[in-house]
């Protein structure tokens, strides 16, 4: 069938099962946006117009993380495309599959400093798995099909497709192909011929599996460290839980691994790293075998990589060969998808019992925090936990509230914690929460944020109101950039330079100005009542929680120091 490029884009989205797109229109992408009305694609694909392209990028990311599908985001050329860059980088560092579709100026204007022209493929090359500039309408369908395949395969990640405007107006023959047939046609078939394999992950080396089983048999003090790779690998979490329960060893987690091991599981020690628990951090130093699954040993986990887990034989299981020995040198490694590796291990792993070792590790678990007349972060999160039965999707921004959310809310499944762990993006949370609620309409979605982060993208409250997306935003309002102030307090001799947020807006009035409901809370009882009302409101709500300015995230380890050198207990 002969079609314009703009219609081919929409048909290719339908091939992939896409029914949701987040975006913002502009001059160069108008032909694609016209398709929603011209050929009725608005009845097949729901488009959410955000307040800003960055909000659209985070919404597509949150949608992808919480549903397991590929997120899709539209933007125009120039500033529209560059407004996506932070969102693309956020998805890239956390291995989230999102396809970003932008349109550039027409081919005859490229390279001439034309109005709203920018080399977005050059800009995003370091932060995408792959990107394309499409100048031939005959290649358009193939490129989009390949983009989706690459985004979701192997280690997932973002892909950008930039299309010259004239391509969206040109015509070409289009033939609908089911996704199962894509590897047999066009660019994708050529790609697989060049690589000599399909886009699936190679089978793990069975000899490597046996070596790990032998190391486990010899170990007296094993520990497991779980990362985001287990969350991203479809079907890996049940295999992971079977593995840890058969192994019977303590389990620590990176931020991105939240939900792989339930927060209230008897083997769970908490986070590892800069704000890791005493039990987790000290266990990494005392264990004799550390099995790291789907993590990359970032500087927030292995704060001093040269001596991280220095007594242990470190075994790294990862889908990406580039991560092996990148940050921490390993004794042994296994390349493969986490689910498949764990399946092979579970098939041969006998039950173990490390009662004495576990008693040693768990003797260091933190005691429950005391309560008083002041509203504390842990009380806020414990209340959310109780009133949602621990089943809510929690989207966070970055800072103290992010760490508190990871510490005090017990995540129990993949896609339940949405946070920017790698890039550390302030302003991520509201867009991500929005995307998560769109993708999971029957789930409670709570956006936990700080008063500094919320200022970054609070204009997306307009999107919540317009589309009736009932996200509950909980602001940990301490009147300061809390995590930066904590560093200034502990490391910079209390020189609080440019961190006080002694200014507006009034967040309750802001929520009301957008047509939403706003609440204030200064005590645990007041917060509980506000949250109960928010759950019943049926619309977006903002709860402004007054937190002490000098409240801190405990524990804390300085950057570049051993994970057991706590500067804050």
SSE topology:
Blueprint: E1 2-4, H1 5-15, E2 20-23, H2 30-38, E3 46-49, H3 53-67, E4 71-75, H4 79-82, H5 85-93, E5 98-104, H6 120-124, E6 130-134, H7 137-152, E7 159-164, H8 165-169, E8 171-173, H9 186-195, H10 206-218, E9 222-226, H11 228-232, H12 236-247, E10 251-253, E11 268-271, H13 278-286, E12 289-293, E13 313-318, E14 332-335, H14 338-348, H15 355-362, H16 377-387, E15 393-396, H17 400-408, E16 417-418, H18 428-439, E17 445-450, H19 451-457, H20 461-467, E18 472-477, H21 482-490, H22 507-513, E19 517-521, H23 524-537, E20 541-546, E21 556-557, E22 566-568
Parallel strand pairs: 2-3, 2-4, 4-5, 5-7, 6-7, 9-10, 9-12, 10-11, 12-13, 13-14, 15-16, 15-17, 17-18, 18-20, 19-20
Antiparallel strand pairs: 1-8, 21-22
Structural class: alpha/beta
> Biggest β-sheet, characterized?
6 strands, parallel
Low-confidence stretches: none
Cross-sheet strand order for the largest sheet? 3-2-4-5-7-6
| Average pLDDT rating | 96
Proportion of residues in extended strands: 15-25%
Number of strands: 22
Rounded to an integer in angstroms, the radius of gyration calculated over CA atoms is: 24 Å
Outline of this structure?
By secondary structure, the chain is α/β, with parallel strands linked by helices.
